[in-house]
Amino acid sequence: MTGVIVVGVDGSETAQRAAESARNLALALGAGLHVVTAFDGEGTVVFGTGSDQRVVTHEENAERTARDAAVELSSPDLKVAYSAVQGTPAQALIDQAEKHNARMIVVGNKRMQGLGRVLGSVANSVAHHAPCDVYVAKTAS
């Protein structure tokens, strides 16, 4: 298999587990890996006080999260790219899969049991609207 596998990260432990599963699949299948972090809106966060302030946008935070995960997942045998995308996590994954003509999207199974299953989850939304195969990695207990 060639092509790209898309996975989303948000800095959480469960997202990291999904990303590790995506990395392992990409290595086994000879595919590239594209790491995506979604961000909501054009907001900013201010760190510090007085003249020692740093203003960081949601987009910058998302890009840092995606970049850090991509660096951690990289190896000499794996091409890893990353992006920050405005929108919901599910829509960001679907959009990036379409943009990169992905072969697969990897999502975690968080919120696929109990009430989360009824209310919906990223995995559920992606599975229903993905333009490619979806692999659900066991990330929640």
Describe, in short, the structure shown:
By secondary structure, this protein is α/β, with parallel strands linked by helices. Helix content is about 40%, strand content about 25%. The radius of gyration is 16 Å and the shape is globular.
Description:
The protein is an alpha/beta fold. The protein has a single domain (4-137), classed as Rossmann fold (3-Layer(aba) Sandwich), CATH 3.40.50.620. It is 41% helix and 27% strand. It has 5 helices and 7 strands. The chain has helices spanning 13-29, 58-73, 89-99, 114-119, 122-129, and strands spanning 4-8, 32-39, 44-47, 54-57, 80-86, 104-108, 133-137. The strands form 2 sheets. The protein has a 5-stranded parallel β-sheet with strand order 5-2-1-6-7, with helices on both faces. Strand 1 (4-8), helix 1 (13-29) and strand 2 form a beta-alpha-beta unit. Helix 3 runs parallel beside helix 5 (122-129). The longest helix has 17 residues, at 13-29. It is globular and about 50 Å long. The two termini are 30 Å apart. Residues 112-119 have low confidence and may be disordered.
